[in-house]
Amino acid sequence: MAESAVIDFVPVWTLILGAGVFLYVLLDGFDLGVGILFGLIPDAPSRNLAINSVAPVWDGNETWLILGAMGLFAAFPVAFAIIIPAVYFPVAVMLLALIFRGVAFEFRFRDAPHRTFWDYGFAYGSLLATFAQGIVLGAFIQGFRTEGYAFTGSSLDCFTPFSIVTGICLVFGYALLGAGWLVLKTEGALQAWARQHGRRAFLGVCAAVLLVSIWTPVMEPDIARRWFSWPNILLLAPVPIVTLVIAWATWEALGRTTSHWGPFTGAIGLFAMSYLGIAISLWPMIVPHRFTLWQAASAPATQAFLLVGALVLLPIILMYTGWSYWVFRGKVRADIGYH
Fold first, then answer.
1. What's the CATH number of domain 10-325, 1.25.40, 1.20.120, 1.20.1630, 3.30.30?
2. Which end of the chain is more exposed for a tag (fewer CB within 10 A), N or C?
């Protein structure tokens, strides 16, 4: 008697996990970017406007971080068991920075005599959390030392020249997202300031994309073959071409005072193309150079059980996230703010 067919839930969970990570990078990325730029804003009224622009949504943005972590743990336990010990130190730093950043966010409104201290806490917490995320990304792309299904490296293996560079690159990327958000949400002097610093962050992003795009295939021959063997080089040519077009449009939008959505959507486009490039380079690996998505996945029955809950919760999360952005749409003003 033939065995009953088993439904493959791995592509579904890959889509859920990939979308969750991408949404976290975009949504928490722009408010971390505002935090990175926050310490450079020259005057207190403008700093208040900047922080008010993210006040209604910043804590909800971190929902996607929890979804990504729990999705990895539940649907791909082998990957979770290898990746988390390998990047434990930068993840711990990131979480502590996010906690202190959140405390600083709240206390700057309630502890006026020490507002300068909390302002620095918000800025440096944002910067440190972003840099730590970049370290995790760089370590992930490089891969991990494993034996069987266990991580066998050191907790400091994640700190390499490549991962440090990716940490710096992500700081520029989030700063560009933050500048785009400020252009979208503010007016006048602060918006002009955001355009100016957005262009500086944009140049950093372009240098980062170019550097990582060269370094990654040089570091890993399999990635080089993926991109530069025939006919892949022809099939994948639209990725860098579209990236160049988006980069040009983003630069133009940053310099055009009538464009309010352009810088932010352009930054999202650059992140989307970078995300796609990483996915193409590593597919179908979830533990790069070691385990594929299918090798690291939990049992089909487990994935099916978890999927029921995910399909109930995801629409709710998307609904309240979308509603919060809709309610607080439009420009932020000095007379309407966070209290």
1. 1.20.1630
2. N
